[in-house]
Design brief:
single chain; 845 residues; 8-stranded mixed beta sheet; 7-stranded mixed beta sheet; 14% strand; globular
Length: 845
């Protein structure tokens, strides 16, 4: 009964989250369910008490969502329009995360900051810190408080929503010695003393590891022991992703579960070795299993706290503790009841956990294990075999491990593909070896070393040489497996509708396994869906249709042009940062979701980080046929990586010049308007002239002509090049203009704008960028020519579809595809129908 009630409560939370967008439909749904249950009860198809309890839990979930989320958890912070520095005094409310040259903190402002319109929690980044800080410390800092923001693209990750679900209302950045002022230690507060001490232990272990271990072992050790993932190398993370073991990089259920298993088995074995007289005396009050379950609680909880007690870790801890409770009560065979109880506890604490990937993956994995165990374990009436040999037992254990790993991999495949655009089929094999090695060897050894460091207080990590050796071997094994042909297989994100069909088929197989027709039909459905996802066919354009997409890559540029014949041109790829690569995180997922694995022409408009930084990753993971550049070079790390990637792919940079044709077919042609043919080469240029405005003026400007449509992608050209193009280019109206240099005042040329008279002006710009782009004067200049203004910082990704055979262009914005709250008095039915269309588009995408 408990799993059913938990399911009803969960459905209530989902329904409650839909009320702001579909109030009429939700009311109609609840009325229909109530009438349907009444009819089934009258016809004695359901038990009255069960129907009442289920419907009550459904209503409880709806009410709980409204009260806990809609009522009190909405963002109330109002960003200052004056863009002024604000002084904030507050307390650090969570374990401090450290990365090279920065600290990440969650700060709760003091009372004077908690008035309406002020943030409740602030995510503070302190760059180049002068000292370490810990949970519970009180600090003061001066910074600009911003509403959380991130890139917004069709089907992309929404960072702002992610922070909102964590209760973060504002973000801020402080830099240097005077960026943050320490006021009071958390040791001075009775409430914060314990948490401050635990965080200091984390800091002590971290410092010793920094002194004792080298990369990449250092990053992995800090990730699995103290929960700091800021030292993990991005390339190493990709290798774990390819091998299906990325979950091992963060402290999740596998770590806590295996540590709990190790402690439980060890304690139980030790108790059973006690003298028989002692065991007989204890058996009157307590059993060895109960002693082991109780003894496991403390070390597992301590590990979770030492790891930073993040949401994913705490949820895993709840699952482990619930399992131990089931062991204590003797409910070993009722795993689904334990899971239901754990889910109820987590959802009561945080209803929005439903949409969190860690919650979804963890529970799907455990549900798959529970389903397999409930199906494979012998019944209580079955006669146990006492004659099985060690070889037979080992074979059976190996088979069970392989099948269980396959069950978990199969159950999580849709979610992994949906969130990460990848089918990690290698995880079927690698997890069988990697999970036990990590959970039963590396984690216990790392915890033992950490405990030794805490007790000794030294600056050197105990067992550091052994840890370095073992972790290096482990990483080398992951690296070797990740290089297997076909191991890295990227796919389009499955639609929500097909995912629901997939899990429905899994449910049919589990419930109707003995009925051959049901089993075979559902199995065929699963195979067809898997093959479809693995294939991820290209989304074909109709006839002479073309598609131009301006991706939101923050302060940078990236444009994707899809030709009627299927060929693809990518112009720029955004920037790459220490923690985020726009090529990997934004451009590549968009291409995969479109079924694109080959880029026919890649254009790096000019060698600046915000334009070509993300192209390196694309070059290494897509089939790129041609690369176009200006021929200019820079002695910068991002550019050296770009040249290395070109060399690895056997590509040479083709220099684009005015009048050159890049691609032509199906009434569409992409021509180069800048730089001029007479431009000097990079070898002839003095090094001190290849920077700043000169690079901008030499950036590649292209013109796309498709039938009557004309589009110009103006890169970062400034006044000099605009004046030259004004004299040499056609003075004809353009349908779409990618505004030069993100709307900078240095690229404002009213005569050039007047000659083009753009119908649509697109500003590729990052929110809160330090340059003040786009300048209001520039926006007004384009609006004054009658252009429709589109901005990636406000509208998200923008895609424009058209046909060369007619003059109609369809312009879409990411923000228009999101659900909008329904105004009950103004447009109840019309707004709700519009939301249904948006939802259908998302589900069928």
């Amino acid at each position: 009964m408990l799993p059913s009630l938990t399911l009803a409560f969960t459905c209530g939370l989902v329904v409650g989250s839909l009320i702001p967008y579909f109030p009429f439909s939700v009311s109609l749904l609840l009325f229909t369910i109530a009438i349907g249950l009444s009819i089934l009860e009258v016809r004695q198809r359901v038990v009255g008490s069960h129907a009442t309890a289920g419907f009550g839990c459904l209503l409880l979930g709806i009410i709980y969502w409204i009260v806990a989320v809609e009522g009190f958890s909405k963002v109330v912070f109002v960003e200052s329009e004056q863009n002024l520095l604000q002084t904030v005094t507050g307390r650090i409310m969570a374990p401090v995360q450290q990365a090279p040259d920065r600290l990440l903190m969650v700060v709760q402002p003091d009372g004077e900051m908690t008035a309406p319109g002020r943030p409740r929690l602030i995510r503070l980044t302190w760059r180049m810190p002068e000292r370490l800080l810990f949970e519970g410390d009180r600090i003061r800092f001066k910074a600009k408080l911003r509403v959380p923001s991130g890139t917004s693209n069709p089907g992309g990750f929404d960072y702002a929503t992610y922070l909102e679900r964590q209760g973060i209302d504002a973000v801020a950045t402080a830099t240097g010695v005077d960026g943050v002022e320490f006021l009071e230690s958390g040791q001075a507060s009775a409430w914060w003393r314990v948490w401050n001490r635990i965080d200091r232990w984390r800091g002590s272990i971290r410092l010793a590891a920094l002194q004792s271990l080298s990369q990449p072992a250092l990053g992995l050790f800090l990730g699995i022991i103290v929960g700091d993932r800021g030292f993990l190398d991005a390339e190493l993370r990709d290798q774990f992703m390819v091998t299906g073991t990325v979950h091992l990089l963060s402290i999740s259920g596998s770590h806590l579960g295996l540590v709990a298993l190790l402690v439980f088995v060890s304690v139980r074995a030790a108790v059973l070795r006690l003298p028989q007289a002692w065991l007989l005396a204890m058996s009157r009050t307590i059993t060895a299993t109960r002693i082991a379950a109780a003894a496991t609680v403390v070390p597992v909880t301590a590990y979770a706290c030492l790891a930073g007690a993040e949401l994913a870790t705490v949820r895993s801890l709840v699952m482990v503790l619930t399992t131990l409770l089931a062991k204590w009560l003797g409910y070993d065979q009722r795993m689904f009841h334990a899971l239901a109880l754990a889910a109820m506890v987590i959802l009561l604490h945080d209803p929005q956990a439903l949409s969190d990937i860690s919650f979804q993956l963890s529970f799907l994995s455990v549900c798959a294990i529970a389903a397999w165990l409930s199906w494979s374990l012998p019944s209580e009436e079955a006669e146990p075999s006492h004659h099985a040999t060690a070889l037979a037992t080992g074979m059976k254990w190996s088979r069970d491990v392989v099948v269980m790993s396959a069950a978990v991999t199969l159950a999580t495949t849709p979610l992994v593909a949906f969130y990460f655009n990848q089918v990690s089929w290698l995880g079927l094999v690698t997890n069988i070896v990697a999970v036990p090695l990590m959970g039963l060897l590396l984690v216990p050894l790392g915890l033992f070393a950490g405990l030794g460091q805490i007790m000794s207080g030294g600056t050197v990590l105990p067992l550091s040489s052994l840890l370095q050796l073992l972790i290096d071997w482990f990483i080398e094994g992951i690296h070797f497996v990740s290089r297997m042909p076909g191991g890295e297989w990227h796919v389009a994100s499955p639609s929500i509708l097909t995912m629901l069909v997939f899990y429905a088929c899994l449910g049919v197989i589990w419930l109707r396994w003995r009925q051959v027709l049901f089993r075979m039909t559902a199995g065929a459905g699963i195979m067809l869906l898997l093959l479809w996802w693995i294939w991820s066919p290209r989304i074909a354009l109709e006839g002479d249709q073309f598609l131009v997409t301006f991706l939101d890559v923050g302060q940078g540029d990236s444009t994707v042009i899809e030709w009627p014949d299927g060929r693809v041109v990518v112009i720029d790829g955004g920037a790459t940062y220490e923690r985020f690569d726009m090529g990997r995180g934004v451009v590549a997922p968009y291409l995969w979701n479109r079924g694109i694995r080959t880029i026919d022409h890649m254009v790096g408009t000019h060698p600046q980080l915000d334009h070509v930084g993300g192209l390196t990753w694309l070059l290494r993971h897509f089939n790129v046929k041609h690369y176009w550049g200006t021929g200019d070079g820079r002695d910068e790390l991002f550019y050296r990586r770009l040249l290395q990637a070109l060399a690895e792919r056997g590509l040479t940079e083709q220099q684009a010049k005015e009048g050159q044709e890049i691609l032509s077919s199906h009434d569409c042609r992409l021509m180069v308007l800048n730089p001029p043919d007479a431009a000097v080469t990079r070898e002839q240029q003095p090094a001190n002239h290849r920077e700043g405005h000169l690079l901008n003026n030499r950036s590649i400007v292209t013109e796309l002509s498709c039938g009557a449509h004309r589009m110009i992608f103006a890169a970062d050209v400034e006044q000099d090049s605009l004046r030259r193009m004004q004299l040499t280019s056609r003075r004809e109206p353009v349908a779409v203009l990618k505004v030069p240099h993100h709307g900078a005042i240095s690229s404002l040329n009213p005569e050039w704008i007047g000659g083009l008279r753009p119908q649509h002006a697109v500003f590729s710009v990052g929110r809160h960028n330090p340059y003040g782009h786009p300048a209001p004067k520039v926006v007004d200049a384009y609006a004054g020519q009658g252009a429709s203004i589109y901005r990636t910082d406000l509208d998200g990704g923008i895609w424009i579809a058209g046909k060369s055979s007619n003059s109609i262009l369809q312009v879409h914005r990411t923000r228009d595809e999101k659900l909008h709250p329904t105004a009950l008095s103004a447009c109840l039915l019309d707004c709700e129908i519009a939301n249904w269309r948006r939802l259908a588009g998302q589900w069928m995408q």
